[in-house]
UniProtKB/TrEMBL annotation:
One of its GO terms (biological process) is pyrroloquinoline quinone biosynthetic process. Residues 11-222 form the Thiaminase-2/PQQC domain. Keywords: Oxidoreductase, PQQ biosynthesis. The lineage of its organism: Bacteria, Pseudomonadati, Pseudomonadota, Alphaproteobacteria, Hyphomicrobiales. Pathway: Cofactor biosynthesis; pyrroloquinoline quinone biosynthesis. It comes from Sinorhizobium saheli. This is Pyrroloquinoline-quinone synthase. Signal peptide: none annotated.
Length: 256
């Protein structure tokens, strides 16, 4: 079949990918949101997820460098501002480092990206390369996991507040802010993909790009589960459970 499906059907196809493949269903997230992670596992998640967060503005900068259309650049550049923030006030990356501090980690250690699992680096770097190299419609389509992000952020906020003593408004500021930012981002991204994937070939490629992104997210959690839930599986270079920990507090001990 070469004729593209209508926008409604194509939108439904994209939503089905998220329904089947989004990482909210991963066993590690089930553990985390249900209060079943140790603080070592929580810290490992914070350390490894930071690598993803820190590369998002780099990914978006790579995307912007390829855009000839100034209107597209204007619409997209807010994503960099969301994560990097201004010189004085922090964006998403600094909010993530506040979470790191809340769970008992040295933010400077987390920002150094030491101890990030090899599989995490591989997956995240592959995503940056994908956005740098693929056609723009596929690059935008890969961002459409944001369609499903508000649900996981809401579940995460509720689960962390219920089960972990470190969780408070300051620690969870990243997730609360993304509840405002993600819908704006996805409104533009979805509209762009629906308008520009105007052949069946482009629709198939966009769907494959979204599938690829769900694989990137899922594989990061696979790496965490293998290293920190399965005994004795931390690979060379992975966080050892001790480096960067600034000392136990009542807040962190409560969830051990």
């Amino acid at each position: 079949m070469t004729t593209p499906t209508d926008k409604h059907a194509f939108h439904a196809r994209l939503l089905e990918i998220g329904k089947e493949r989004y990482h909210d269903k991963h066993p590690f997230h089930v553990m985390l949101h249900g209060g079943h992670c140790t603080m070592t596992q929580v810290r490992a998640w914070v350390i490894n997820r930071y690598y993803y967060q820190s590369r998002i503005p780099m990914k978006d900068a790579a995307f912007l460098s390829r855009c000839d259309d100034p209107d597209l650049r204007r619409a997209w550049r807010s994503r960099i501002e969301d994560h990097d923030g201004g010189i004085d006030e922090g964006g998403g990356i600094r909010r993530w480092l506040r979470l790191a501090e809340a769970v008992g980690l040295d933010p400077a250690y987390v920002a150094s990206t030491k101890g990030v699992l090899p599989a995490t680096r591989f997956a995240v770097d592959a995503y940056v390369s994908f956005v740098r190299e693929k056609p723009l419609v596929e690059a935008v389509a890969s961002s459409l996991t944001e369609l499903f992000a508000p649900k996981i952020h809401s579940e995460r906020i509720a689960g962390l507040l219920e089960h972990y003593a470190f969780a408070d408004d300051a620690a969870l500021a990243y997730f609360r802010q993304r509840l405002n930012e993600a819908p704006r981002d996805v409104e533009f991204g979805l509209s762009f993909v629906l308008d520009h994937a105007d052949t069946r070939e482009k629709q198939d490629a966009a769907a494959a790009a979204l599938t690829f992104k769900t694989d990137v997210l899922w594989s990061q959690l696979d790496a965490l589960y293998s290293a920190y839930v399965t005994p004795g599986r931390i690979p060379p270079g992975g966080w050892d459970g001790e480096e960067g920990v600034v000392g136990k507090t009542i807040a962190t001990e409560a969830a051990e």
